[in-house]
Amino acid sequence: MEIDKAIRECDDRRLKTKYTNAIYVIKRALALYPVQEVALSFNGGKDSTVLLHLLRAGCFLHQAEEFNSGGDAADGGKTFPIRTIYFESPSAFPEINSFTYEAASIYDIQMDIIRLDFKSGLEALLKANPIRAIFLGVRIGDPTAVGQEQFSPSSPGWPPFMRVNPILDWSYRDVWAFLLVSKVQYCSLYDHGYTSIGSIHDTVPNALLCTRNSDSSEEKFKPAYLLADGRLERAGRAKKNSSAVCRKLSSTSNGLKMENLNSGSMLTASIITVGDEILFGTVEDKLGSVLCKKLHSIGWAVSRVTVTRNDIDSVAEEVERQKYRDDMVFIYGGIGPLHSDVTVAGVAKAFGVRMAPDEEFEEHLSHLIGEKCSGDKNEMALLPEGITELLHHEQLPVPLIKCHNVIILTATNAVELDRQWDCLIELAKSNGILELMDPFVSKCFATTLSDVEVAQPLSKLCAQFPDLYIGKLIVFPAAHPTFSLLPVVTTCVLGYEGGYRESREGPLIITFEGKDLSRIEAASQSLCQKFHPGAFSKIK
């Protein structure tokens, strides 16, 4: 059988292992269910193409073992004995349809064409045919893969059948290694930059494979198998508007309700630090303020910075709160092999998914750590199942981890954070993982006026400039009772006006920050005009 021969003669040990395990699952399924009671769900994509040829090889080997004839009893895989289901859709690419029908002709596939939605089509098919198990080309990382095993009963509310997933643990690299080594045909769209194919309405070539001829503006795309980071295979799926971006936030501060946020032009982030040592006062967190400045430099407002315990439930609760409130959540601390390093597991729990082995991530770890990081004991290679995207950059020894709108940073000091941030910005420019906007601008003034003198004019100024969101008038404890009456307001979103003292004996610092420099100029001039000339001096 040509597939089995090609794989066993290749030099790719990893592919051989994946192939052997997949064939075992297929043979196990064929031992449990008669061939008349199994089916293949085929959609013309790369994963189902791999599965088609694995099933051809698996059926051949299973028949050979049954007849104990060394493979001669079967027809060499020329015909395909398994019923195949194809859900034909008017939104499918013509190339997908053409490839599917061509494959059916070449391999003599008994194909049922269904023109209903997936659930209704299955109900009708299973009612008319005694199908008990369906082979699916699902892989970990697919949206539908969460919670599935190699053998998984159908979900409640669906027709009863066994889902068989022979390539569940295969990576993007494994899929293309198989297709190229086996030299089988696949849909032509993959040779033109498509890396993950949905419908004609939500799929475009992957921009990471785009090349431009210096003599013309024409865009060309490299083949899908040249995509360097397989976790970015879905970058060609058209992005939907995030509900987090479109939402309207409301905050109440000192009795004032702020609802003037233009969320179409403003994105917010929260920062979570994980570490009992910070809460105990053993060490000081120095990364939070640095990360705030970096986010401001790309136009993002930081809504909150929190510190939580090295506890899975504590991390999960904090992530659960912030992932709905903000457009992006950055979390660091608690990353590593120790019992207290629970950040990744906490993120998984916040999204309601389990931790599963990620072989691509384990490969990166093995290059970094060597033999100390291998086999089933490598818990550091367990990542949230089905929601993880690896952010790979040549300057990073190990990719960063992104789970939906949560980015897990591994930095432990400012130098490492600088490097990881620079890599994130480069990746943001190429694949849009982080939207880059106009940075915040600010003006600072120093005054010897007392806090009480400044408080009321500053509050009136905030009402006059509602687009400059009022920040917090920060003061250090003082003996005079009037300081307890000063207004307290939450953090900056569109911009903020506030003040602070570096020392009770020193000057009061008033800061204006936002994105519209002309508005900041107007607000600062208005404040200065409320007092005698020279009351405020501009500082850097």
TrEMBL record:
It comes from the Eukaryota. One of its GO terms (biological process) is FAD biosynthetic process. Residues 270-403 form the MoaB/Mog domain. Gene3D superfamilies: HUPs, MoaB/Mog-like domain. One of its GO terms (molecular function) is FMN adenylyltransferase activity. It holds the Pfam family PAPS_reduct. CDD domains: FAD_synthase. This is FAD pyrophosphorylase.
